[in-house]
Amino acid sequence: MSGESVFPALEPLLEQVSKPIQYVGGELNSTVKPWDVGGDATVRWALMYPDAYEVGVPNQGVMILYEVLNERPDALAERTYAVWPDLEALMREHGVPQFTVDAHRAVGDFDLLGMSFSTELGYTNMLTALDLAGIPLHAADRDESHPLVVAGGHAAFNPETIADFVDCAVVGDGEEAVLAITDLVGAWKREGRPGGRHELLLRLARTGGVYVPAFFDVTYLPDGRIQRVAPNAPGVPWRVSKHTVMDLDAWPYPKQPLVPLAESVHERMSVEIFRGCTRGCRFCQAGMITRPVRERSITGIGEMVERGLAATGFEEVGLLSLSSADHSEIAEVTKGLADRYEGTNTGLSLPSTRVDAFNIDLANELTRNGRRSGLTFAPEGGSERIRKVINKMVSEEDLIRTVAAAYGAGWRQVKLYFMCGLPTETDEDVLQIADLAKRVIETGREVSGRRDIRCTVSIGGFVPKPHTPFQWAAQLGAEETDARLAKLREAIRADRRYASAIGFRYHDGKPGIVEGLLSRGDRRVGRVIEAVWRDGGRFDGWSEHFSYERWMAAAEHELTPQGVDVAWYTTREREEAEVLPWDHIDSGLDKEWLWQDWLDALDETEVDDCRWTPCFDCGVCPQMGTEIEIGPTGKTLLPLTVLGAGRAQMVEAAAGHTH
Ligand code: SF4
After folding, report:
1. Which atom of ligand 1 is nearest to the CA of 288?
2. Cα–Cα distance between 455 and 374 in angstroms, integer?
């Protein structure tokens, strides 16, 4: 019978694999619902984060969808993750299909398989899962008995490279979108599945909010560029729009965060304090595609922290967002939470890489009694000139002043993030990082009076992304990236007075080229993904599994007959008139505005954050019928309403520190 557990067949295999606990489920706050919970028309989702359990389980997106779907009486959702090659081999040998970790049901039994892609390097893992699930790799080969494969997440903003493998893609915020899809699938099931899979996909496509690649034809020019992408089915709109949840307070998820049994990358719970970012860093896809800014209120944040801690027993809370220090009431939020949880074991963290003194004040507030180990700042570009190009408005003086404040406040270690290969960059821009790092150490030694302070320079290759002003830019080749990084390393090591105080971490340029191929590729790149997977490609986001040679060999073999190559997709600059593979996916950003911003970048002209300055017409707000949603609300976090264990202690602590 459908929906049966495959655990009896799986269990004997688990003792033969590494970390078997990652496959057993049963996490605190996980949910198992009866297969027919909503009757015949129950809509069943398998949600996949296509990476290892330890990376996937803390993923907020999946956690949120899992919870909103399971709250519905007529739906159920279970989770599935990429299995490691050791288990994959055994599953193939013993005929065990891809399974969910919740009830160990076969993924092939579900109505929908939702895949959340944070990075393009998860594509080969998707193919493993499809294959293990018994789902044909190509959407065109699937029938009524197979789940609909739905792609989401940031990488879905260019779904073209995986167009052959997914039935549809959804861009933007998922919570309202999955509910709308669930409604539509449920109605279609109740009606007796009229028109089969085709009709269902057509209904989804006609909403304008679900992209079904099969309903779009792509034609090419003789030189390899795209000529046109056009719908081929009646009633399917030319462009697919992104989903935007406007009122975050109405979506306080996850309410019951999952607590993994096995080790995961984050041993803490996270509360998303806002979505979107308007700083306009030109390299940043996340910032561009999640506009506009929508803040959770201070009271909403307080309730989520309180409820989440009670539901999980975690002792650390991360206040998440793209740039957490930018919340309009962040000072009140951090102070309020620090007051409330002072004297308890609850630690608070605020991932923010903003280069300014205010950010340090916040970090100081959150570590009132704790150890001040490391702070991270992201100037991103090595020289002031390149920071103008990328619109990261940080001067060298800002940076030095900021690190001086950090070392002065007792922080011992400062990490600085940079990128290599930014548009118009030369060796000189990157070599300035060495001088900057030396000044940082010098300043740190001066203000702290200590010799044991450290600074780590972390640098990776820049990958131009769709829906950003750099979508037209040439990516720097892997060899050039590596050569530039080698020069930087030399420059850092050259000066013995500082060399031991400066750590240097870098990623070589090769994975970035593959990421570049996948992120700005079109449908022709799908064959490369499949060839890599057939050749054994798995877990490409893990350096020990990633093989550049395998990708290049597959690309050579699959792209050459199509008249294109890796360089064409990566290191080639595009013209304004070129049809980009993702032009029919509407992120809300006006293409003309993006082009102007690209020209501004080349001119080293900065634009301000539209959160605080007049709108610069990027297109998002009018087009999406939305607007920026920020405070201040004027509310405060207290009084405390913590319920359950530890309440008295927390009340006492909070009361004692409310100024
Ligand atoms: S501050 Fe810049 S890099 Fe950070 S999320 Fe916003 S746009 Fe992106």
Report:
1. 7
2. 9
